[in-house]
């Protein structure tokens, strides 16, 4: 059922609750990861056969020849779309990279930050209910823009070992250097721990289902990860100034992903709007090819319409939800955007559907879900780089800060720390005393 409630209704709080780590996923991830740590490639082969149905006889069969990932046989219109998305994402990624910076110290020294790319990273590309070719662009392109030399990509194959050719073409175009037909927990374990056939990576990025998410969380520390993410979600804030057909279509765009646990929140400013949006939602659902998946979301109360007294109050409802995607479909949308505190990505104005962000706009569509947008950011090229601070003091800078260093060393009982500063002036003190004599 698509419910309509008013601000303050306790069902809003229930809607906002999204468990991040289902117990069954945690248990399964723990078992598979432990097996991969123990048996390496053999465990990966067994897991691929058990969970994906592809029974490869040797670990070598899991690696895909990148030279074969060509657009031959791919519709030219689709190939152009992949190249368009890649070019736009690459341009945005290069523009967003943080630049080295420095500042002068009080006595002629310098300090600041610089960045270096990671050497080897892994990306996960979902391919279960839908082969997410766009995720190839939205992950690998960022790593390439950051300067990473080795980019490992894992994606599940069918029982015949085949992977969607558009997805493979997108991976090659974006800059993947190794591609494996391995999905699920086993892909995360292989990249995190390394095997004879696939060396371990330094960081794993990319979205996935509850099992992939549980595996990423459990390998944190062996490798870095981008974030923990769950089913897709969207919030739309509207004041009645945008066609309800557009609003309904945008809300349904995330409900069709396939897990059944997706969330779509609409906040509007009148009961009349709410009723019209609900009616349009139900009408459009009947026309979707993935209707059964959307209906499962509706049955689980995954679509909610909230009536607020005005857009400002509605914005606070969205901030408390902390959505993965947030569309502001209201007058003065850019002004309202300044009040956003918790959202993975914001889409401003009636001509910016969330699907533009999913496929082509520029920013990555790998975003925090499950309320994690109040503490995590969306994926960026800087996630594939290391930040280094640096300090270069002059003698005068150290002399000025010496007393502070010695004071903290005394408080914390770390006399070696204090001595590291004091000893540098010991010879100068002796020389000064000799001159006075």
Write the layout of secondary structure elements.
Elements (H helix, E strand, L loop, with lengths): L2 E4 L3 H7 L6 H17 L1 H12 L10 E2 L11 H21 L4 E4 L5 E8 L2 E5 L8 H14 L3 E5 L10 H10 L3 E3 L3 H10 L9 E3 L4 H10 L4 E2 L7 E6 L5 H12 L7 E6 L2 H15 L5 H9 L3 E5 L3 H11 L3 E5 L3 H5 L7 E4 L5 H6 L25 E8 L2 H18 L2 H8 L3 H11 L1
Parallel strand pairs: 1-12, 5-6, 5-8, 6-7, 8-9, 10-11, 10-13, 11-12, 13-14
Antiparallel strand pairs: 2-7, 3-4, 4-15
Helix pairs in contact: 2-3, 2-7, 2-8, 3-7, 4-5, 4-6, 5-6, 7-8, 9-10, 15-16
How big a fraction of the residues is strand? 15-25%
What is the third-level CATH name, the topology of the largest domain?
Rossmann fold
What's the pLDDT, averaged over the residues? 92
Q: Main beta sheet, described? A: 6 strands, parallel
Please, what is the CATH homologous superfamily of the largest domain?
A: Nitrogenase molybdenum iron protein domain
Total number of beta strands: 15
Low-pLDDT runs of 5+ residues are 433-437
Could you tell me the radius of gyration in angstroms? 26 Å
3D structure, described in words:
With 437 residues, the chain is of the alpha/beta class. It folds into three domains: 3-19 and 230-361, Nitrogenase molybdenum iron protein domain (Rossmann fold); 23-228, Nitrogenase molybdenum iron protein domain (Rossmann fold, 3-Layer(aba) Sandwich); 393-436, no CATH class. It contains 17 helices and 15 strands. The protein has helices spanning 10-16, 23-39, 41-52, 76-96, 133-146, 165-174, 184-193, 210-219, 244-255, 271-285, 291-299, 311-321, 333-337, 354-359, 395-412, 415-422, 426-436, and strands spanning 3-6, 63-64, 101-104, 110-117, 120-124, 150-154, 178-180, 203-205, 224-225, 233-238, 263-268, 303-307, 325-329, 345-348, 385-392. The strands form three sheets. Strands 1-12-11-10-13-14 form a six-stranded parallel beta sheet, sandwiched between helices. The chain has a six-stranded mixed beta sheet with strand order 2-7-6-5-8-9, sandwiched between helices. The protein has a three-stranded antiparallel beta sheet with strand order 3-4-15, with no helix packed on it. α2 (23-39) packs antiparallel against α3 (41-52) and α3 (41-52) packs antiparallel against α7.
């Amino acid at each position: 059922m698509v419910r309509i409630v008013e601000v303050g209704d306790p069902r809003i709080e229930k809607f906002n609750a999204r468990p991040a780590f289902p117990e069954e996923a945690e248990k399964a991830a723990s078992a598979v990861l432990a097996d991969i740590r123990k048996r390496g490639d053999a465990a990966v082969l067994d897991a691929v056969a058990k969970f994906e149905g592809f029974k490869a006889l040797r670990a070598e069969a899991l690696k895909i020849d990148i030279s074969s990932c060509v657009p031959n046989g791919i519709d030219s219109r689709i190939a152009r779309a992949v190249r368009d998305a890649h070019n736009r994402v690459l341009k945005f990624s290069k523009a967003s990279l943080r630049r080295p910076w420095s500042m002068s110290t009080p006595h002629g020294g310098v300090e600041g930050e610089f960045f270096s790319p990671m050497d080897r990273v892994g990306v996960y590309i979902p391919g279960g209910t839908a082969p997410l070719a766009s995720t190839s662009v939205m992950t690998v392109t960022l790593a390439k823009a950051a300067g990473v030399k080795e980019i490992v990509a894992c994606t599940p194959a069918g029982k015949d070992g085949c992977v969607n050719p558009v997805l493979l073409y997108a991976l090659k175009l974006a800059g993947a250097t190794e591609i494996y037909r391995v999905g699920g927990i086993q892909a995360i374990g292989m990249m995190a721990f390394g095997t004879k056939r696939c060396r371990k990576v330094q960081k794993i990025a990319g979205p996935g289902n509850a099992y992939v998410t549980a595996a990423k969380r459990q390998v944190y520390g062996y490798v870095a990860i981008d974030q923990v993410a769950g089913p897709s979600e969207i919030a739309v804030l509207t004041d009645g100034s945008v066609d309800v057909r557009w609003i309904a279509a945008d809300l349904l765009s995330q409900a069709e992903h396939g897990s059944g646990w997706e969330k779509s929140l609409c906040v509007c400013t009148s009961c009349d709007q709410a009723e019209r949006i609900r009616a349009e939602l139900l009408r459009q659902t009947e026309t979707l090819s993935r209707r059964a998946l959307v209906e499962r979301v509706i049955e689980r109360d995954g679509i909610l319409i909230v009536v607020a007294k005005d857009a400002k109050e509605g914005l606070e409802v969205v901030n408390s939800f902390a959505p993965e995607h947030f569309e502001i479909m209201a007058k003065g949308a850019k002004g309202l955007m300044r009040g956003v505190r918790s959202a993975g990505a914001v889409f401003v104005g009636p001509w910016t559907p969330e699907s533009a962000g999913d496929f082509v706009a520029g920013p990555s569509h790998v975003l925090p879900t499950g309320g994690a947008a109040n503490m995590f950011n969306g994926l960026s090229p800087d996630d594939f780089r290391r930040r280094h601070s640096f300090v270069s003091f002059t003698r005068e800078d150290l002399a000025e800060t010496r007393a502070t260093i010695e004071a903290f060393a005394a408080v914390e009982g770390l006399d070696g720390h204090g001595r590291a500063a004091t000893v540098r002036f010991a010879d100068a003190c002796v020389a000064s005393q000799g001159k006075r004599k």
